[in-house]
Write a structure and sequence with these properties.
The structure holds 2 protein chains of 2 kinds. By secondary structure, chain A is an all-beta fold. Chain A is about 0% helix and about 55% strand. Chain B is globular and about 40 Å long. Classes of the chains: A mainly beta, B mainly beta.
């Protein structure tokens, strides 16, 4: 079974600084997809960034980037120039190449300090 | 484009009562998901529909939970009878349903259930 582990229940960052959220996963598949979702206090989950496992190049979306280490089964999220609006729960998620079932980690609560 | 709609947003019931949640996915989305998110945990998939057929309900406690998706659009999730451990946020999500990398899941705001 696929498992996703987020070892940091809480993180904090100063506004305008950079923070990295960790995620590791377990799978026997070679082709899969990885995602980071953001869940603000309003509870609506929003996709932040996604990565295809067969692509070695790390995905980037504006201030958000990932460090994908396939051999280590690691998928960390880097947020640069942190803003107050980045404060939220962040969930790492795994999805097989086939089908559409997501496996979520337990989340990291990010606080942005003004 | 309208997002995924859910109602009610909040519900408080006594244990052993029944409750139902409603979800209206994004128009044209073939796949619909119900997740249970217990406080402090990540969402756990309860059931996945493709149009009006069930794709995966392996983690649905079928002795008390049921779900249907009539005509492949709206869906309802029911709990009968509710237990204390059912207290959670129930999230509905939908996606186009192609199973491709860009087939993003869009989430609704959730229904927060409290069982007393």
């Amino acid at each position: 079974a696929q498992t996703v582990t987020q070892s940091q229940p809480e993180m904090s960052v100063q506004e305008a600084e950079t923070v990295t959220l960790s995620c590791t996963y377990d799978t026997s598949e070679s082709d899969y997809y990885l995602f980071w979702y953001k869940q603000p206090p309003s509870r609506q989950m929003i996709l932040v960034i996604r990565q295809e496992a067969y692509k070695q190049q790390n995905a980037t979306e504006n201030r958000f980037s990932v460090n994908f280490q396939k051999a280590a089964k690691s998928f960390s999220l880097k947020i640069s120039d942190s803003q107050l609006g980045d404060a939220a729960m962040y969930f790492c998620a795994y999805r097989k190449n086939t089908g559409n079932q997501f496996y979520f980690g337990t989340g990291t609560s990010l606080t942005v300090i003004p | 484009e309208a997002g995924v709609a859910q109602s009610p947003r909040y519900k408080i019931i006594e244990k052993r009562q029944s409750v139902a949640f409603w979800c209206n996915p994004i128009s044209g989305h073939a796949t619909l998901y119900w997740y249970q998110q217990i406080l402090g945990q990540g969402p756990k998939l309860l059931i996945q529909f493709q149009n009006n057929g069930v794709v995966d309900d392996s983690q649905l406690p079928k002795d008390r939970f049921s779900a249907e998706r009539l005509k492949g659009v709206d869906s309802t999730l029911k709990i009968q009878p509710a237990k204390l451990e059912d207290s959670a946020v129930y999230l509905c999500a939908s996606s186009i349903g192609q199973g491709t990398f860009t087939d993003t899941q869009y989430f609704g705001p959730g229904t927060r259930l409290t069982v007393l």
